[in-house]
């Protein structure tokens, strides 16, 4: 451990320090309004550090640190930007919401930041045990956060999240043990070196039973984190019960971090011809199931948070398409097209979902209902909120002029390039299904008569977050070039 | 890297107008005038673009091309270009959009409900349609294709004419049908791109001929074809159309029938015909049959309609069948292909746009005054609405293909082109003209002539503002009827260019 290690770790350390600072300040100040201000100001430090790191890492290059357990490359920094942007939006959206909590407002912000530091660590890890530790650092605060409202549903959400993430961690750990058992190492790069030396039997899936079990368990473990079918059952309940800003955090940041690890593990350790076709088919099937089940069940939801929960499941399916194309991709284009498509999708999905949830928080704050029917006539009571939510829905459907259009085109393109046309057929059909329920929300806002004519007032911080994410969704929808270039640079670092 | 800028201006002018309306304007009348002015400038621009297209030169003109709008993501693959241009096929359609765009705005002068949103959506819709006709990059084409959905959805769902509930259903049906079609289209586009490495719609025909496609060429063709067939609409995918038309506001119907359906026909010619001549000659018999079913089925169903708008909608189905029939002639006889049928098909798109646009406009005006579209309730309106009656009579005559109107020109071209290839189908298809004569005259009789019901004794003829769109369309219809080559020459250049591209790609074929 030396100074350079500290520099490489500085974004994570800075986030954790801000969290500790908030806990301390919380002890002495009476006016809790200062805490989010502190958090947002504090977040500028990891931001600056990340920008500086982006400049120091040459494209395609990696800087290993902390005895080879961590690596800083453009891939991880790209994801850290997504995470920092999401956490900033979550904090901005929470300023008013936290009044619901009678106590522990300081701890609320601190827990979010601790979880974020875990997620940021996740994007940089290249060693299985470190991944596990970072994952726990991410998940435990989330369980507490989900239960923060302390009513029946919220506590159920927290407990469910705690139990299921414990189970999934156990499954993951079991998978890690299997892989360690056969390769004798937990470092991803060494695993990649050693697998070709193993005496793999091409007749068995994954070459050997140990790897078969190991990889399937690892995929299952992460399946919980990214809420892909058949490991999705916690998502709708937790999304519904948790405080809405926490739901936003789960659906954006937690998902991005989960995908970051999946991409990292499978592209650095297991991207070997014998194996990749096998895990690619697993991801392809999971992708098809997630899209289809997520979308079909979402149709019947009347609670917007549950609907967004299932929508997140469906989008996990779309993103998994990128994993499948990564595995199938031939040397050359496909290798890059899948991951860069996924990174672009994650960024686009982040701005879109932040927009959607920010509106949900703002509207539900006033209407005190998460029912879709409560959104009747919102277009008249809050034109900007309605327009923003409508754009988010258009983006989630994958229509222009929103970023979701390009995101889907790139992932579908990657899959076509990898020869997964059947999966693309399922994907586009799912887009059609999703159009129906996403537009139901738009329909409620614009077509149904308003219950009252009173305008919906929104707090300034949430408006700021909303404005940024709205502009992001729109601008990257019209001119995606800069974001795509970044995603491509990031993906080529793998 | 070329950039003449003219097409970019005409495409994005309505969008800019819509933004200005949403962000800057407050009062209803200023919004109306502003939208009117925007679309009038659009009309003038489209006229200018149409007349400045040099038929002697042919090919793609007025190109706006910028690469790097969406950069290549892997290697040099998947670069989406900003690439606009017009050729003989799209130039008249741009003009058509300009005309009907202005007509639609003026015809909406009386809209009082949510004026700001209404005119904004109408204008955004025009950007979408113009973008489809001018884009030459396939993904950009697809972007505009999708862009037009949301405005049309809102136009039907909010300002639709039927009681609440039904119009929301129709709007959703329109959206789901179109989006399903375009979902398949996207697969086709992606497969083409990853097989050939280009999205340039002009270069694609030869690129496809020389590339090995990821999927069988028939499957790619089918995926793309479905997208266009839904939009056209081709039987049996047409069921959204009568609902959407019936429930759309007048201007919505005008644009839907006038230009949105043409996107389907344009796609069939630009993509299905030009890029896949071999497939199309194999499936041409199916196209001919489907086209004839459209013509005859649509024509027969019209007789059972009691709702005036539904009636026009089904006549629209019938007339769009001629486009498909004309296209089927591209099969040719033993490798010798003749551009006559395809020219007729594109001509039919233009004339149908103006004629059906006028029909919907007049029906809308009648409805505004009587508040019913139920035909048995109407009758004798000619006494009270002479101007409307004359205009409707002209539209009806044009619709049944009377010589001297534009309808005659396009249908005769289609029959000439198709007869030698699909003799029997053409003969059956020609019955569509007889059917049209029957239902159009019968409808005139029931709506405009006969005894005047006491209820309509008070109604007045169309207002002076409403003269404008009617006169524009009547003028276009008669002008083209008398001097068709002003449009058909341009189309013919476009079709000939397409045919040359087909022959370049597939040397077996020869143009007669």
Tell me about this structure.
The complex is a heterodimer of chains A (494) and B (512). Chain A is an all-alpha fold and 494 residues long. Chain A has a domain at 284-494. Chain A is 77% helix and 2% strand. Chain A contains 19 helices and 2 strands. The radius of gyration of chain A is 21 Å and the shape is globular. The two termini of chain A are 24 Å apart. The mean pLDDT of chain A is 88. Chain B is mainly alpha-helical and 512 residues long. Chain B has one domain (6-511). Chain B has 20 helices and 4 strands. Chain B has helices spanning 6-23, 28-52, 91-107, 115-134, 138-147, 149-159, 166-196, 204-210, 217-231, 240-247, 250-275, 277-304, 308-328, 340-370, 381-384, 386-399, 406-419, 423-447, 464-482, 485-505; strands spanning 61-70, 80-86, 336-337, 510-511. The longest helix of chain B has 31 residues, at 166-196. The mean pLDDT of chain B is 87. The A-B interface holds A 332-334, 336-337, 340-341, 394, 399-401, 405-406, 409-410, 412-413, 416-417, 419, 421, 424-425, 428-429, 431-432, 435-436, 439, 443, 446-447, 479-481, 484-485, 487-488 and B 68-71, 73-75, 77-78, 139, 143-144, 146-147, 149-150, 153-154, 157-158, 168, 172, 175-176, 179-180, 183-184, 186-187, 190-191, 193-194, 214-215.
């Amino acid at each position: 451990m030396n100074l350079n290690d500290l520099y490489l770790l500085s974004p994570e350390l800075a986030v954790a320090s801000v969290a500790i600072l908030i806990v301390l300040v919380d002890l002495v100040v009476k006016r809790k309004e200062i805490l989010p201000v502190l958090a947002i100001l504090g977040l500028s430090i990891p931001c600056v550090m990340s920008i500086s790191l982006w400049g120091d890492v040459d494209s395609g290059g990696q800087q290993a640190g902390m005895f080879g357990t961590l690596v800083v490359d453009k891939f991880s920094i790209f994801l850290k930007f997504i995470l920092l942007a999401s956490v900033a939006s979550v904090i901005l959206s929470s300023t008013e919401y936290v009044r619901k909590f009678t106590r522990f407002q300081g701890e609320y912000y601190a827990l979010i930041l601790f979880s974020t530091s875990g997620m940021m660590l996740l994007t940089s890890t290249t060693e299985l045990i470190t991944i596990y530790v970072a994952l726990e650092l991410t998940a435990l605060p989330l369980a507490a956060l989900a239960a923060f409202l302390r009513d029946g549903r919220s506590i159920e959400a927290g407990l469910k999240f705690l139990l299921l993430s414990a189970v999934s961690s156990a499954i993951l750990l079991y998978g890690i043990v299997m892989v360690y058992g056969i390769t004798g190492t937990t470092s991803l790069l060494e695993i990649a070196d050693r697998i070709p030396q193993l005496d793999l039997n091409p007749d068995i899936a994954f070459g050997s039973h140990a790897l078969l079990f190991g990889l399937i368990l690892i995929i299952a473990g992460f399946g919980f984190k990214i809420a892909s079918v058949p490991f999705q059952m916690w998502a709708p309940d937790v999304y519904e019960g948790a405080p809405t800003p926490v739901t936003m955090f789960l659906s954006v940041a937690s998902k991005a971090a989960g995908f970051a690890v999946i991409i990292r593990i499978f592209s650095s350790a297991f991207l070997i011809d014998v194996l990749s076709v096998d895990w690619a088919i697993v991801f392809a099937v999971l992708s098809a199931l997630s899209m289809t089940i997520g979308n079909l069940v979402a149709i019947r939801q009347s609670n917007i948070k549950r609907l967004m929960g299932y929508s997140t499941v469906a989008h996990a399916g779309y993103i998994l398409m990128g994993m499948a194309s990564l595995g199938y991709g031939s040397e050359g284009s496909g290798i890059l097209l899948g991951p860069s498509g996924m990174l672009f999708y994650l960024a686009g999905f982040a701005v879109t979902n932040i927009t959607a949830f920010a509106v949900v928080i703002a509207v539900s704050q006033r209407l005190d209902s998460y029912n879709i029917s409560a959104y009747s006539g919102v277009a008249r009571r809050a034109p900007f909120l309605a327009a923003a939510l409508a754009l988010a829905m258009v983006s989630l459907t994958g229509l222009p002029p929103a970023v979701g259009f390009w995101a889907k085109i790139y992932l579908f393109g990657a899959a076509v390039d990898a020869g997964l046309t059947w999966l693309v057929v399922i994907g586009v059909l799912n887009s059609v299904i999703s159009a129906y329920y996403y537009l139901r929300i738009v329909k409620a806002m614009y077509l149904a008569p308003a219950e009252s004519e009173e305008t919906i007032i929104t707090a300034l911080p949430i408006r700021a977050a909303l404005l940024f994410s709205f502009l992001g969704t729109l601008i990257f929808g019209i001119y995606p070039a800069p974001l795509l270039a970044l995603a491509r640079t990031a993906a080529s670092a793998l | 890297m070329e950039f003449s800028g003219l097409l970019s201006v005409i495409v994005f002018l309505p969008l800019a107008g819509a933004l200005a309306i949403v962000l800057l304007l407050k009062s209803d009348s200023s919004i109306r005038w502003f939208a009117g002015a925007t679309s009038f400038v659009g009309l003038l621009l489209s006229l200018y673009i149409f007349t400045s297209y040099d038929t002697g030169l042919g090919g793609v003109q007025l190109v706006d091309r910028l690469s790097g709008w969406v950069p290549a993501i892997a290697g040099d693959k998947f670069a989406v270009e900003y690439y606009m241009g017009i050729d003989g096929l799209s130039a008249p359609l741009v003009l058509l959009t300009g005309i009907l765009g202005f007509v639609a705005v003026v015809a909406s002068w009386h809209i009082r409900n949510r004026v700001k949103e209404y005119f904004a959506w109408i204008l955004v819709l025009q950007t979408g349609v113009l973008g489809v006709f001018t884009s030459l990059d396939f993904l950009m084409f697809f972007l505009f294709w999708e862009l037009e959905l949301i405005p049309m959805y809102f136009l039907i769902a909010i300002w639709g004419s039927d009681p609440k509930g039904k119009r929301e259903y129709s709007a959703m049906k329109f959206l789901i049908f179109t989006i399903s079609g375009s979902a398949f289209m996207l697969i086709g586009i992606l497969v083409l791109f990853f097989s050939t490495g280009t999205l340039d719609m002009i270069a694609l025909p030869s690129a496809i001929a020389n590339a090995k496609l990821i999927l069988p060429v028939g499957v790619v063709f089918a995926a793309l074809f479905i997208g266009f067939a839904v939009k056209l609409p081709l039987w049996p995918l047409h069921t959204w159309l009568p609902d959407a038309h019936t429930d759309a506001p007048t201007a919505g119907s005008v644009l839907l029938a006038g230009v949105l359906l043409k996107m389907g026909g344009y796609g069939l010619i630009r993509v299905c015909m030009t890029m896949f001549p071999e497939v199309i000659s194999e499936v041409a018999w199916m196209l001919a049959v489907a086209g004839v079913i459209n013509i005859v089925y649509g024509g027969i169903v019209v007789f059972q309609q009691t709702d005036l708008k539904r009636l026009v909608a089904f006549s629209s189905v019938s007339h769009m069948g001629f486009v498909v029939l004309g296209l089927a002639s591209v099969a040719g006889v033993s490798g010798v292909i003749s551009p006559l049928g395809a020219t007729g098909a594109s001509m039919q798109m233009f004339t149908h746009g103006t004629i059906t646009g006028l029909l919907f406009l007049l029906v809308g005006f009648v409805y505004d005054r009587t508040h019913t579209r139920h035909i048995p309730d109407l009758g004798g309106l000619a006494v009270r609405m002479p101007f409307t009656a004359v205009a409707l009579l002209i539209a009806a005559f044009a619709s049944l293909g009377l010589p001297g109107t534009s309808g005659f020109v396009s249908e005769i071209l289609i029959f000439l082109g198709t007869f030698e290839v699909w003799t029997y189908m053409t003969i059956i298809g020609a019955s569509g003209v007889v059917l049209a004569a029957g239902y159009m005259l019968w409808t005139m009789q029931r709506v405009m002539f006969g005894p005047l019901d006491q209820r309509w004794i008070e109604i007045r003829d169309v207002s002076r503002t409403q003269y404008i769109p009617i006169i524009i369309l009547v003028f276009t219809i008669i002008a083209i009827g008398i001097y068709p080559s002003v449009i058909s020459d341009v189309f013919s250049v476009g079709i000939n260019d397409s045919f040359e591209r087909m022959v370049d790609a597939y040397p077996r074929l020869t143009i007669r």
